[in-house]
Amino acid sequence: MRKPIIAGNWKLHNTIPEALDLVEALKKGLANQTRVDVIVAPVFTALAAVADATSGTGIAVAAQNCYPEASGAFTGEVSPALLRGVGCKYVIIGHSERRQLFHESDEFINKKIKAVIAGGLAAILCVGETLEQRDSGAMMEILHDQVRKGLAGLTAVDMQQVVIAYEPVWAIGTGKTASADQAEEVHSFLRGTLAGIFDKSTSEQTRIIYGGSVKPDNIDGLMERADIDGALVGGASMKAADFLRLIHFQQPE
Question: Distance (Å, rounded) from C-alpha 88 to C-alpha 47?
């Protein structure tokens, strides 16, 4: 049984005081919650403060990015070791904004994932197609390539430190959302892809979460699907009431 993940990507939002206020509100609403793995991903400058504030609470902290080298002349970059040192447990890798705005390749993303795992952290690998790719019929080929290239050289043991996040690019921040059936179709395909790369056991153990305008009014339907193991959330993760509603999603009797 795969434990659900609800992860909040705060992107370039929230000062340290704002981040701590949000964390305090989340802590109040998550007393004794153990059903779901809860993750928040603040900006770099707030990581240490948020990690301190969430220590021992069941809320894990993720970084939104990293650089694949341990140290060196890489001005402005942050290594997995430094992230682990401030209390991070996860790193988001290959988010569509990193791919589109900063032109990160699958090969560079693969280097980051290997560095994250070597550094004792877990990677959340984001994959997803644009609307043009979906409409052209290339969606599954694009997703297959992103997964295969992103995970190149990893072992089944390494995959214990990897979460896959499917984020249709056309549904991020647009208000559009893949239907639960559309999302499940892709998640099932991704699970099959993992079985082909590794083995069935690995594919069944790997958590695949959905990201793309997840909100309180669609979380229940998404979480009913067999291959959807949680959500990577943007805007709704920055409103405590909304994020708590996602964490406390309803399952059918």
Answer: 8
pTM of the entire structure?
0.96
Summarised one tens digit per residue, pLDDT across range 117-137 is 999 999 999 999 988 898 899
Q: What confidence category does residue 213 fall into, taking pLDDT thresholds of 50, 70 and 90?
A: confident
Domain regions of the chain by residue span:
5-247
With CA atoms as reference, report the closest residue to 106 among 115, 118, 94, 114.
94
Active-site hit among 97, 129, 167, 184: 167
Q: Which of 95, 97, 129, 187 is catalytic?
A: 95
DSSP letter string, 166-207: E--GGGSSSS----HHHHHHHHHHHHHHHHHHS-HHHHHHS-
* Residues linked to residue 5 through DSSP beta bridges, in sequence order: 37, 230
Q: Cα angle vertex 162, ends 68, 52, to 5°? A: 75
Encoded amino acid at 241, one letter: A
Superfamily per CATH, domain 5-247 = Aldolase class I (3.20.20.70)
Chain Cα centroid distance, residue 66: 14
Res. 239: pLDDT tops 70: yes
The amino acid present at 47, given as its one-letter code, is L
Structural tokens at position 239: 């409103």
95 is catalytic: yes
Cβ-proximal residues to 171 (8 Å cutoff; 6+ apart), any chain: 177, 178, 212, 213
Residue 24 appears among annotated catalytic residues: no
